[in-house]
Amino acid sequence: MAKKKIVIVGGGYVGFEVAQALDELADVTLIEQREAFVMPPAAIRALVDPTLLDQITLPYDKLLKSGQVVRGRAVSVSQSSVTLDTGDAYPADFIVVATGSSYAAPFKPSGDSIAEFRQASADVSAQLAKARSVAIVGAGAVGTELAGEIAAAQPGKSITLISSDDRLFPMYPAKLGAQLKRKLEGVGVNVVLGQRAQDLRHMDQPYQGAVTLTDGTVIEADLIFPVIGSKPQSSLLQNVPGVTVGSSGRLKADAWLRPSDYPNLFIAGDLADVGDGMTIVATTRQNPWLIKTLKKVLAGQPVERQKPYSPWKKAPILIPLGPVIGNSWLFATVGNWITRTMKGKDLFIPKYRKAFGLTSERG
């Protein structure tokens, strides 16, 4: 009997893992516009250690043993196929769309070219090395980790981290934000809370200049990083029948991560407005559910008879401030050793290199 065809659009943290898990059970096609996977959390540290770029850009050519990875840009989805901008159409019994989100450079590729991403990262890294003062606008995970990485690798710089919230990570217990603030200040970072930058010249790339805060304070810096959040890449599905776009730009989905009138179309990751945050941690809950569900569906069981997806009540979060210190929330606030051991030391680089068939640092 011929294997069922699954087309997965997007080779990020959702797409590559689901494709690999189903590779032996289905005829898998993974459509990805870039030739390599990039690890965004490690891209933060690559700004202070450019040698990491070789380790965190992972080619797709060894990912699947049976299925295929097609480099291309999907432009339309029907109930039975996915069509690329070349006009090529890939038939599907089931479709998973996990197109992720965009972010300010150089933390994610802004286009299809990995070479351009590497060059952008190298250029900003060189600017950062020369900068005496740095302002980071936005104190989510990226901004906070960036402040910690710079302070750890390039001590002596003037670093200002600006947040519009009154405390760091306000969605978590106050202890987490308070400890991170104390540790940042301990390594010389000036943490400004409850202030919004009003005159950012660019929203998508670092630049030299000044920002004015809501209280009138002007902060000048040799390098200003705007890091104020991800933008979901939802345009591919916005015209599919039954799709509803939420206020954040993410797509609503039913209890089985289906966003449309098509019963065989699933979404996950940053695209899916199902109660999870736009974090990699969200995929550690969504991916196992999606893989398990699709395996049962491939075996002939109806989707509606499967256990519905249940989002994190409050997702864990790991915030290293460089390779040594940091804080995390793992259903309780934990400190340096656990954060360093779980993430700060190697940023999951060996794990993902192994997943992509790269068993050595340079493999």
What structural class do helix, strand and pairing data support? alpha/beta
Uncertain spans: none
Supply Rg: 21 Å
End-to-end Cα distance, whole Å, is 37 Å
What is the helix tally? 9
SSE layout and pairings?
Layout: E1 5-9, H1 15-22, E2 27-32, E3 36-38, H2 40-46, H3 53-56, E4 57-59, E5 68-71, E6 74-77, E7 81-84, E8 89-91, E9 94-97, E10 101-102, H4 114-130, E11 133-137, H5 141-153, E12 158-162, H6 174-186, E13 189-192, E14 207-212, E15 218-226, E16 231-232, E17 251-252, E18 265-267, E19 272-273, H7 280-298, E20 317-320, E21 326-329, E22 333-334, H8 336-344, H9 349-355
Parallel strand pairs: 1-2, 1-9, 2-5, 9-18, 11-12, 11-15, 12-13, 17-19
Antiparallel strand pairs: 3-4, 6-7, 7-8, 10-16, 14-15, 20-21, 21-22
